[in-house]
Amino acid sequence: MSDEINPVINMVVFGIFVVATLVIVFRVSKRNATATEFFAGGRSFSGPQNGVAIAGDYLSAASFLGICGAIAVAGYDGFLYSIGFLVAWLVALLLVAELLRNTGRFTMADVLSFRLKQRPVRMAAALATLVVCFFYLVAQMAGAGGLVALLLGLSGPVPTGITVAIVGVVMIVYVIVGGMKGTTWVQIIKAVLLVAGAGILTIVVLAMVGFDFSRLLQMAVDASPEGEAILAPGLQYPNPVDFLSLGLALVLGTAGLPHVLMRFYTVPTGKEARRSVVWAIWIIGIFYLFTLVLGYAAAAFVGPEVLTDPATPGGQNAAAPLLALEIGGPVLMAVISAIAFATILAVVAGLAITAATSFAHDIYASVIRKGQADPKQEVKVARRTVVVIGVVAIIGGIVAQGQNVAFLVALAFAVAASANLPTILYSLFWKRFNTTGALWSMYGGLTSCILLIVFSPAVSGGPKSMFPALDFDLFPLSNPGIVSIPLAFLLGIVGTLLSKPEADHDAKQAEMEVRSFTGANAEKASDH
Amino acid sequence: MTTPDHLADRSIAVQRSPEFQGLRRSFFGFILPLTALFLLWYLAYVLLAGFAPDLFATRIGDSTITVGLLFGLGQFVTTFGITMAYRSWANRRYDPHAAAIREEMERGELTGDANEEAAR
Question: Which residues span the membrane (chain A) (predicted)?
Answer without folding.
Answer: 12-29, 50-73, 79-100, 121-154, 160-179, 191-211, 243-265, 277-302, 331-360, 381-400, 406-428, 440-460, 480-498
